[in-house]
Amino acid sequence: MATTIASVHLLFLVIMTYGLPFHRVDCFEIEKVALLKLKRGLLDPSHRLSSWVGDDCCKWRGVVCSNRTGHVIKLNLRSLEYDGVDGKFGGEISHSLLDLKYLNYLDLSMNNFKGIKIPKFIGSLERLRYLNLSAASFSGRIPPQLGNLSRLVYLDLKEYFDLNRYPDESSQNDLQWISGLYSLRHLNLEGANLSRASAYWLQAVSMLPSLSELHLSSCGLSFLPPSLPSSNLTSLSVLVLSDNGFNSTIPHWLFQLRNLVHLDLSFDKLGGSILDPFSNSTLEKLKMMGSLCKLKTLILSENNLNGEITELIGVLSGCNNSSLEHLNLGFNKLGGVLPNSIGNLYNLQSLLLWENSFVGSIPNSIGNLSNLKELYLSNNQMSGTFPETLGQLDELVAVDVSENSWEGVLTESHLSNLKNLKELVIFKFSLLPDQTLVINISSEWIPPFKLKYLSLRSCQVGPKFPAWLRNQNELNTLILRNTRISSTIPDWFWKLDLELDQLDLGYNQLSGRIPNSLKFSSESSVYLMWNHFSGSLPLWSSNVSKLYLGHNSFSGPIPWDIGERMPMLTELDLSYNFLTGTLPVSIGNLYGLLTLHVSNNYLSGEIPELWELWDGVPNLLVHVDLSNNNLSGELPSSVGSLMFILILELSNNHLSGELPSTLQNCTYLRTLDLGGNRFCGNIPGWIGQTMPSLWSLRLRSNLFNGSIPPQLCSLSSLHILDLAQNNLSGSIPSCLGNLSAMASEIELFRYESELKVLTKGREDSYRNILYLVNSIDLSNNALSGGVPEGLTNLSLLGTLNLSINHLTGKIPNKIGSLQRLETLDLSRNQLSGPIPAGMASLTFLNHLNLSHNNLSGRIPTGNQLQALDDPSIYRDNPTLCGRPITAKCPGDDESLNSLRGDDQDEDEDGAEFEMKRFYMSMATGFVVGFWGVCGTLVIKESWRHAYFRLVYDIKEWLLLVIQLNLARLQRKLHL
Questions:
Q1: Measured distance CA(623)–CA(670) in Å, rounded
Q2: CA distance 313 to 331
Q3: Nearest 5°: CA angle at 422, between 421 and 427?
Q4: d(C-alpha 427, C-alpha 459), whole Å
Q5: Which value, to the nearest 10 degrees, does the dihedral of the CA atoms of residues 677, 683, 688, 689 take?
Q6: What values do phi and psi take at 695, rounded to 5?
Q7: Residues whose CB is less than 8 angstroms from the CB of residue 183 and which lie 6 or more positions away in sequence, other chains included
Q8: If you ran DSSP here, which 8-state letter would residue 708 be given?
Q9: What is the pLDDT of residue 240?
Q10: Residue 822's CB: how many other CB atoms inside 10 A?
Q11: How far apart are the first and last CA of the chain?
Q12: What is the radius of gyration, based on Cα positions, of the chain?
C-alpha cells in the first residue's frame, strides 16, 4: 500500500512539473504573432503558408512545438524539388524570429531570397542546434555573428548564395568566426569563397573538438598543410575537400585520422606518387594502427597522381575486416597492374579506376568481391582475357571496360551469374579490322539479367545478330557498332516492344528493310549508317531527335510529311543513298534542326523555300549539305534566314542564277562550297565584308565572270580559296598575300566538314585534316597580268594553281619563301624569264608543272628539283635548257668533254684503289673470321669440347633423320 501511495505522489509531481505527457495547450501568443510577422515578410507564390491561420500555431505547416512546454522549437521552411521554381519562398526574414526564444531548429534552405544578406540577428538565436541556409540565394559574406551559436551542432551553408547572380559576393569570407562553435559536429561550407582563409583553414577547424563532418569543397582553398596543427580532429569521420586548387602532394596526416569513414580529395590538382603519404615507416605504422580500417569511401579522382596502387591496396585490404565500400581513383596517371590483393576488399561495392594507365589483365581474385556493384576500368592500357571469375559477381550492376586492348573470347560463362547486371560497356573508338576480342555467346543461352544499357563496339559479335538479346525487353540503349554483323535483323527484335534512348548499329553489314514499329523515348538517337539497309526510309516516333541513315541503300522519295511526323529532329543524315524525288517542304517545319545532310543521292527539282523565319525566329541550322544531287533552279532567298549557318555545301548540282543578296546575312559562315553548278554573274564583294570567319571558299566550276573582288583579301581566316574553272578576268589582286591564315600555324584540331581540294594534280577529299590544308586555286580562267609578289608571303601555302590563264611576266624571285609548298602549277600561261633559283629550296614540292609558257634560261638543279625529273614539267618552253629536258645550254658541250676527261682519269685511279681495298678487306676478314673462331677453340679448352660436342650431336641427329626416312620409305615400298 505504501508503495502504491509513493507511486501516486511521484506521478503527481511529474505532472505538476512537466505537464501531462503528449498534451499541450495552444501555442504561446507571442510566438504566434512572431510567426505571422514572418509570414507577412515572406513572398509565398505557391501559398505554402496557407495553413498559418487559427490560434494553434503548432499545427501550422513547418512548425513544430515541444510536447512538454508548448514552445515553438522547430521551423522548417525548406523548399523541395517538387515545389518548383515558383514554389520557393522569397522576400524578407523578419526580426520577429527573435521572439521564438526556444527555437533550436531552423531550415530556410532551397529558397530564393534574391540576394538579400543573411540576417545577422540569426546569431542571437542562442538555443539553435540546427541551422540550414543552403542554396537559398542569399548574398554577401557569412555574418560572423553566427559564431555566437555555441550550442549549434549542425550548420549547412552550402552554396548559400546565387553564384550566377552574385559571383563575387562571398569573397570576403574568413573562418575566424567558427571558433565559438565548440559544439559543432557537422559543418558544410561548400561553394563559399574561403580564399582569405586558405592559410589557416585547417587550424581553424581543428579548434572544433566535436567535429565529425567537414565539407569544404569548391571553397577556393589553395593550401593543404603538410602536417596537422593539433590532434583535435580525432572525431572526424567525413572530410570532403574536393575541387580546390591545392596543387600539392597528399599529406600523410589524412590517413592517420583513425575514425575517418569518408574522404574526398577529387578535382584538387594533387600530384606526385599516390604512395607519397605512405613512407615505409608510415606504411607499417598504418598497418599496425589500422588507421584506414574504418574507411568506407575513398575518392581521389580527377587529379595528377601517379605510381602503382599495390601498396595502397595492401594497406586497405590488410584489415581483419576491411570496411571499404567505394574506391574512386579515376582520371589520374596511375599505372602498373591491378594486384591480386584487391580481391581482399570484401565489402567493396564500387571500383572506379577509369582514365589511368593500368596494364595487364583483370586479376582472378575479382571474383571474391561478392558485394561489387560497379566496375569501371575504361580508358586504360589493360589487355589479356576476361577472367571467368567475373561471372561470380552476382551483385554487379554496371561494367565498363571500354578503350582497352582485350583479347580472347567472352562467353556466357563470364556472365552466367550476373543476375543484377544492368549496364555492360565494351568498346573501342576504332574502325580497324583487327578485332582481337570475340564475343561468342550461344544462341540458346538465356541471360539471367535484364540489361538497360548495352554498348559493344569494335569487337566481333557477328556474323549473326546476337540471339541472346531476345529476352532483353528492358533495353534503353543498344549499341552494336562495328561488330561484324552481316545478317538481317531478326523479327523477334522488332517485337521486343522496346522504348529506346539510343539505337546504334552502324558500321556493320546489316541488310534488309527497317519497319516503322520501333518506339523511342524523348530526345532519342538512331544511328544506322554504313550498312546495307534497303527499302523506303523508316519513320519512327516523333520523339527521335537524331536520325543517321546515311551510307545505306534506301531508295524512293523522302516522305513528304517528315517534318510533321518527326518534329523533334535536330540532326538528319540521309546522305549516300539512292533517294529520289524532291526535297519535302515539310523539312522547313523542323524548327530545331541543326544539321541537314542529304548529299550523294538522286534528288531533283528546285530547293523549296525551306528556311523562312518562324514567327520572327531565325532558323537554327548550322550545317547544310545538299551536294552531289540533281537539284536545279536558283538558290532561294530564304537562305538568308540561316543566320547561324557555319557550313553550306551545295556543290555538284545544277543550280543557276546569281547568288542571292540575302546570303550576306549568313555572317557566321565557315565553309561555303557552291562548286560544280551554273551560278553566274560577278563574285559578290560582300562575301569578304560580311563573312569575316570564312575558312573555305569553293566556287569552282561555275559561270562566274568579272574580276576577283579585292574584298576577299580581308578574309583573315581563309585557308582554302578555289575559284577555278570560271570565266574570271582581270588581274590577280596583289592583296591576296594578306590572307594571314595561310601564314600562321593552327595548333588545335577543328572540324571543317569534308571538302574536295585539287592537290598534286588530282582532286582529293579531305575531312579530319582539312584544317591543315592551305590552297589557292585560280586555274582555268582568263586572268591576266603577273603573278603577285605578295603571294610569296603565304609561308604555309601548300597548293598554288594558276594554270590555264593569260598570266605574263616573271615567276616571283621569292617563290622559294613558300617552304610548305607541295603543288605548284603555272602551266599554260605566258610567263617569261628564268626559273628562279630559289625554287630548288622548296623541299616539300612534289608536283610541279611549268609547261606551255615562254620561260627561258637554264633549269635550276639541286635539292627537290633533282627528284622532279619528268621532262613534261617544262614542255613547250622553247628557250629553256638543261636537265631534265634534252635542250642543251650554251657551253654545255665543252664542259661535258672536260668533265668526261676528268672522269676517265678519276675512274682509272678509282678502279685501282678499289681493287687494293678489296684485297685488304678480304685478308682482314679471313684473319678475323678464321682466327676469331679457331683461335678461341685452340686457347679455350671448355669451348673446344662444347663445339665438338655440338658438331657430334648435329651429325647424330642427321643420321637418325636419314635412317627414319629410309625406314618409312621401305615400309611404303614393302621392301
A1: 10
A2: 18
A3: 95
A4: 7
A5: -120
A6: -95, -40
A7: 129, 150, 151, 152, 153, 210
A8: P
A9: 97
A10: 20
A11: 128
A12: 41
At 503 the three-state DSSP class reads: strand
User: What letter represents residue 963's amino acid?
Assistant: Q
Torsion sign over Cα 131, 135, 137, 142 = positive
Q: At what angle do helices 280-289 and 310-317 cross, to 10 degrees?
A: 20
- The grid cell for 453 is 544499357
**What residue has cell string 679457331?**
934
> Smallest Cα–Cα separation from 255: which of 231, 286, 230, 226?
286
Q: pLDDT for 664-700, tens place per residue?
A: 999 999 999 999 999 999 999 999 999 999 999 999 9
| Strands of the 604-606 sheet, one edge to the other | 604-606, 630-634, 654-657, 678-682, 703-706, 727-731, 782-785, 806-809, 830-833, 854-858, 879-881
Backbone angles phi, psi at 598, to 5 degrees: -130, 30
Name 847's bridge partners: 823
- Residues 215, 237: contact at Cβ < 8 Å? no
Q: Which amino acid is at 813?
A: N
Q: And the C-alpha cell for 52?
A: 498559418
Residues of the chain with pLDDT > 70: what percent?
A: 84
Average pLDDT over residues 207-217: 94
Residues 6+ apart with CB under 8 A from 172: 140, 141, 196
Task: Determine the length of the chain.
Answer: 975
Q: Which residues, 6 or more positions from 700, have their beta carbon under 8 angstroms from its beta carbon?
A: 675, 676, 722, 723, 724, 725, 726, 777
Cell numbers placing 897: 668533254
Q: What is the pTM of this model?
A: 0.82
User: Quick one: average pLDDT of 535-549?
Assistant: 92
Please work out, in degrees rounded to the nearest 5, the angle formed at the alpha carbon of residue 525 by the alpha carbons of 521 and 528: 130
Matching residue, cell 544492368:
422
Number of helices (H) and strands (E) in the chain: give both, helices first: 11, 57
| Strands of 517-570, DSSP E | 519-527, 532-535, 544-548, 553-557
**What pLDDT shows up at residue 257?**
85
DSSP code string of 74-116? EEE----GGG-GGG--EE---GGGGG-TT--EEE--S---TTP
Give the closest residue to 197 by CA, choosing from 214, 218, 173, 227.
Answer: 173
Q: What does DSSP say about strands 696-698 and 519-527: parallel, antiparallel, or unpaired?
A: unpaired
For residue 202, the one-letter residue type is L
User: Is residue 149 within 8 Å of 125, Cβ to Cβ?
Assistant: yes
Contacts of 423 (CB under 8 A, 6+ apart): 397, 398, 399, 400, 451, 452, 453, 454
pLDDT at position 366 is 95
Q: Which residue type sits at 537?
A: L
